[in-house]
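Worked Example 4.2. Consider the chain below.
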Amino acid sequence: MTDVLIIGAGPTGLTAAIEAVRHGLSVRIIDANETGSIYSKALVLHSRSLEVFADMGLIDPILQRGQEFRALNFHDNKKLLNRINFRNIDWQDAIYPYWLSLPQCETENVLEEHLAKLG
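Applying the procedure from the previous section yields the following structure tokens:
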């Protein structure tokens, strides 16, 4: 018998499955799609998400596959309207004081690999 049924094999479902397995529960994941999407619905992991991934034991492959998001530029046609330099932000006590650019499909790959290692 399965302890936890998870609907959806995206980042949220995979994260829930990893946490359930880490706590000794058996899981079954079902998803409407047979395979993960090759298209990304998200491109950035925020600082707190990186802390959660560190707690889960999978921060190294996340950091290896991602790239620090250094700035955000706002344009209107060819005119620069504003620029946010993330290195100038006061991140206070953040362990990972940046955003990480990583397509959702790559995040899912890391989560799937980690879940497979857990059994």
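The chain has four helices and seven strands. The first helix runs from residue 11 to 22. Compare this with Example 4.1 before moving on.
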